[in-house]
Specification:
Chain lengths: 100, 240
Amino acid sequence: MILTALANGSQHGYGIIIDVREISGGRVRLRAGTLYSALDRLRADELIVVDREEVVEGRLRRYYRLTPAGTRRLAAEAARLQAAAAAALMRLKLAGGMAT
Amino acid sequence: MTDQADLERGYRRLLACYPPEFRRENGQEILAVLMAGARDDQRRPGLAESADLIRSGVWMRLRPSVPPSARTVQAAVRLMYAGAAASAVGLIFGMALMIVDLQVAVSGQFLGHSLIAQKPFVITVSIAFGLVVVCMWLWMARANGRGRNWARILSTVLFVLATLQLRGAFTQPASHAGLGVTVLYYGGVVPFVAAWLVGAAAVWLLWRPASAAFFKPPGSTQARRRWPGDACGPVGSQLP
């Protein structure tokens, strides 16, 4: 989810929370603690990096972006989900076909 | 405005759960996100929000900071946590043995070798020693996980001491009353032996050539500077 939020450009922490909420249709509400644990792990795995830092209203604001490895991981994950969804739809269609 | 200040102070207190290094790096930013997500009239951190911060903070403290490149050290650190668990189990068995032993003595079936009945001092020392051993495991796991070279050496020394002690455990007679006590006795020895085996594996992993790069030469850790101007530095001092 976080990688998806970063897919079309860099984002800062609060931006990611808002974005994830929008992507999930309001179902996923990331909390700050969880978000920063995840960002720390993604940075350690070199899937994201800090793009730039800004100071807004006296506070540091970091923007994160995907690394090439992060982009690849997201693409692989999306393909996997798509395949799983396609398989589910296919089976539902078959089951529906047999029922009628 | 005072509401905001109260809220910010509340958040800062919760951020103290995080390891200091992480707080220096990300504290300000997390605080900004928390403040941005807060309602206008909010004076205190919400319950779910607080739980999330505490959980994440504690997790980050416990999690060994081992890069994926040092798998052997990561495995050793995990083994050390397992060793702590085995020692804790051993301690519980040991305590159960002492209680049973004490009951046997009290109920009048005094059967010669009751190491405990006359020696409450022995009980206290044994329990304290057991707790120290568990703490040592945890301490070594953390210190090795952070790449401290002294921890690697100290772990090895402790392992050698444990080996000497293990020989003693087998010479101790398990010869008295009832099946229950015997079972408890061996129940107490099994985790002890398990802990020793775990220790052997952990020490072996720590000295594998692959682990060497992870342990920095002594002195290089001092190169890490503290940032004096950091807003999240004095979190601890704001506590009442």
